[in-house]
Structure formats: structure tokens, C-alpha cells
Amino acid sequence: MSKPDTNERVDQGPLIEEELKEPRRFRVILHNDDYTTMEFVVQVLMLVFKKSEEEATQIMLQVHNNGMGVCGVYTAEVAETKVSMVARLARNAGFPLRCSMEEV
Fold it and tell me: Beta 98-103 vs 68-75: how paired, if at all?
């Protein structure tokens, strides 16, 4: 019986290269309305989106002046959760504040 050649390459077939893709990203957007107070929008931005008071005020002013403002960019699951949290907080406070997400 012959000795196995330790230098012999074992054929493992073609190397499989898995292409890793970045997760899809979504903008979370607040929409202006005539009833939700500016103070409430700032509170939501600080609570849900972890913005400083200054950042929250700037985004609130974008919402007020431009009809909408971007709160941040997140993966789909995080964006959905934040949209849902805003809707729940607004509903509980009696405001019609609308929040949506769109793919970047």
C-alpha cells in the first residue's frame, strides 16, 4: 500500500463567493399638518430619533417650512419601527402627525 502524498491538493470544487449586499436603507420623513404642535414634534424627534434639542428644532422647522423633514436614514426594520412609534405617540397625544419612509 502506498503512503498518501501530504503535498497532494484535495479538490474542493470551485470556490463559492457569496456576494454580500448592504441592507436597503430608508429615509424616515415627518409630514407637516395644521394641528400638531411644534413642541410635540421636537419631543418626538428627541425621544424616537435621539436628536438633540437643537437638531430636533432644525428638523421641526424643515417640516414646518417645507412640508416635510427627514428624521434619519435606517434599515427597513428600524425605519418601520420608528414610523410605528411616531404614529402611536401622535395618536395617544391626539395629534394627526404623519410619518412615512421611502427607500434611499
Answer: unpaired
